[in-house]
Amino acid sequence: MITVKKEGVLLQKAGFEFEDESVLNPAVIKEGDHIYMFYRAVHTHNYSTIGYCELDGPLSVKTRWEKPFLTPGFEYESHGMEDPRIVKIEGTYYLSYVAFDGDNALGALATSTDLKTFTKHGIIVPKVTYGDFDRYTKAQSKLNEKYLRYNRDAHILADKDLVFFPRRINGKLTFLHRIKPDIQLTAVDELTDLTDEFWVNYFLHFDEHIFLCPKYPHEVSYVGGGCPPIETAHGWLIIYHGVKDAIKGYEYSCCAALMDLDEPFKEIARLPYPLFKPGLDYELKGDVDDVCFPTGTVLQGDTLYIYYGAADELVAAASVSLSGLIEELLKNK
């Protein structure tokens, strides 16, 4: 098994009103010697904004804003901006997040060229009703029956964990998103291609867009996107979360898989066990118990730092040898 070092708590609520409930699930990006973190900051009654800090090295906070960096400005995100991820594609930063209006949780996007001013592009994932989803996918006999079980009670299907690949693949903008219980992949020439007609056709061939399915006991309930994919010589390293329904509730673990660079639907390898899972006090007890929820990484030499939300209450970090992780994955093709 690969050895992972849990580096401890990096960020917790600091007494600012906008994050008086919790801080968690950060987007992280390194530019030169600078490491920037955009994290979910939760105010009373689960009202989320995006907080900001800059790190001094991968494990030390240098500066931290005492006010939100990004706040809701539209009805579709009126109850919060949650769980950001960030990548840089062709000089533009793509900050994806979950927009929550109090009822619906859907992937949205903001972009920037300087990490200071962001332009919001709204919800970019499908806004599909359960009835339409059932109708469009009814003929797809191999579709996991959990799709209907997990989504039956929703009017609009929750589509979360929006994560972009850090470059175009075969010329296309490519991103992961998640309608339970699997992770789906979407690729388009430009974001303007994401029309209602596009999504109807997408659901009519929905089984062709499933990227990763639950496979092992630690992810048996469902899987979801985690950190932005990392390009390696052996394939895309996918750090995602897997969920299992244990006796005391759901347990969220950090998981790893390797996918083909040119055909990312093609799974090369997957760890048959969690990369790491809840085990420390701050992961086992919090706003939501038993959670390790990875959302960002930084690579320093051969050391991969993974940033994650612990028990939905604070930000923690873990580290692992990148070459060692790839070697371990390749033992599990």
Q: What would you say this structure looks like, in words?
A:
A hairpin with an 8-residue loop joins strand 10 (160-164) and strand 11 (173-178). The model has no long low-confidence stretch (mean pLDDT 97). The radius of gyration is 19 Å and the shape is globular. The chain has helices spanning 130-137, 146-151, 196-204, 281-284, 322-330; strands spanning 5-11, 22-31, 34-43, 47-55, 61-64, 80-89, 92-100, 105-112, 119-123, 160-164, 173-178, 183-188, 210-212, 222-224, 230-232, 235-246, 249-259, 267-270, 292-300, 303-310, 314-321. The strands form 5 sheets. Strands 14, 15, 16, 17 and 18 form a 5-stranded antiparallel sheet that branches. It has a 4-stranded antiparallel sheet with strand order 1-21-20-19. A 4-stranded antiparallel sheet has the order 2-3-4-5, with no helix packed on it. It is mostly beta strands and 333 residues long. The longest helix is centred in the middle third of the chain and has 9 residues, at 196-204. It has one domain: Tachylectin-2, Chain A (5 Propeller), CATH 2.115.10.20. GO terms for molecular function: glycosyltransferase activity; hydrolase activity.
